[in-house]
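Researcher: I'd like a candidate sequence for this fold, 320 residues long. If you have to choose between options at a position, lean toward the conservative one.
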């Protein structure tokens, strides 16, 4: 599965439980990584690491459950602008990763070492070993992704999205082979602009996914017909709306499906949005309807089963 943070992670946990953790490979976006306090922070890798280890804070969707924020509080007392909240125990992950990187390991090697220490069997691959950033330009300022998303609260309008460093980046070892060898390739329910596109834009990745089109299923990150009540989800939806807007698109399931027409034969659409299924089908994709909001493990299991049924070619438009 290709993906980003919490949406991808929730489905990954369910997929790993269904097929066995050793049979799942995750190719994770690193274009919103950054250096902070001299530490390499990889939010999407961390979210998946903690999710698979059963340690993620479910309410926030990121960081470790039951973490404390004493260090960041003290930094604030000392007059530092602490807009990016690193938990005390979360810091251990960033310290260890940074030590491993400074010791000469590539990010992919440091990530598998972290995964081993967290007791994770699922293969967790960063999309690349190179440092890539996402720069968002507003009318009179440019920000890196975390600054825009966390510090500023994902404001609009965003005029331009640039993946800084992607020109010189290559896919991490194992990424292209994992896509070639998979029984099923899942484009996860992640932000198409900030999480999926940076992965696809790496040399060879888009072509490799396209070559597997009949075995590729994309899961919608957008549920248009259900009101969002959860604060974190609302924040992520606002960011997606702005970033889709930067691409000249409204944030709708059919627009996301259209981005993946050449890549994925099947699109998993939320059953609440069934009315747009025919629009997607007219574009040449099979639509599978499912409950895509993974609000609890039971719903995750059902979505994972629906996604996995796509391997068996059960492409029927039924609620999963
Ligand atoms: N998200 C926030 O909304 N506020 C934070 O202070 C914050 C800190 C943070 C620290 C470590 C980490 O791994 C993730 C963190 N996130 C935080 C989540 C992150 O900003 C985004 O959810 C992802 O980058 C988008 O996928």
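Model: Candidate sequence:
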């Amino acid at each position: 599965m290709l993906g980003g943070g919490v949406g991808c992670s929730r489905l990954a946990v369910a997929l790993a439980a269904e097929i066995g953790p050793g049979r799942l490979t995750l190719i994770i976006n690193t274009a919103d990584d950054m250096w902070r306090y001299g530490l390499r922070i990889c939010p999407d890798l961390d979210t998946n690491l903690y999710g698979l280890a059963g340690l993620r804070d479910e309410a926030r969707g990121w960081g470790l459950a039951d973490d404390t924020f004493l260090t960041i509080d003290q930094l604030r007392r000392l007059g530092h602008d602490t807009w990016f909240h690193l938990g005390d125990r979360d810091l251990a992950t960033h310290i260890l990763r940074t030590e491993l990187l400074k010791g000469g390991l590539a990010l992919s090697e440091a990530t598998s070492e972290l995964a081993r220490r967290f007791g994770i069997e699922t293969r967790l691959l960063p999309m690349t070993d190179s440092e890539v950033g996402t720069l968002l330009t507003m009318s009179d300022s440019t920000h890196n992704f975390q600054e825009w998303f966390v510090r500023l609260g994902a404001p609009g309008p965003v005029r331009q999205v640039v993946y800084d460093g992607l020109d010189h980046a290559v896919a991490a070892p194992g990424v292209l082979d994992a896509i070639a060898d998979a029984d099923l390739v899942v484009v996860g329910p992640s932000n198409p602009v900030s999480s999926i596109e940076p992965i696809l834009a790496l040399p060879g990745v888009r072509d490799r996914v396209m070559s597997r089109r009949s075995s590729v299923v994309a899961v919608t990150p957008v549920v248009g017909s259900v009101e969002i009540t959860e604060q974190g989800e609302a924040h992520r939806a606002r960011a997606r709306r702005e970033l889709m807007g930067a691409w000249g698109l409204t944030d709708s399931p059919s627009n996301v499906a259209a981005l993946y027409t050449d890549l994925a034969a099947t699109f998993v659409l939320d059953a609440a949005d069934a009315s747009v299924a025919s629009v997607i089908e007219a574009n040449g994709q099979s639509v599978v309807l499912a409950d895509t909001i993974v609000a609890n493990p039971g719903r995750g299991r059902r979505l994972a089963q629906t996604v996995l049924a796509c391997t068996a070619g059960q492409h029927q438009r039924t609620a999963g």
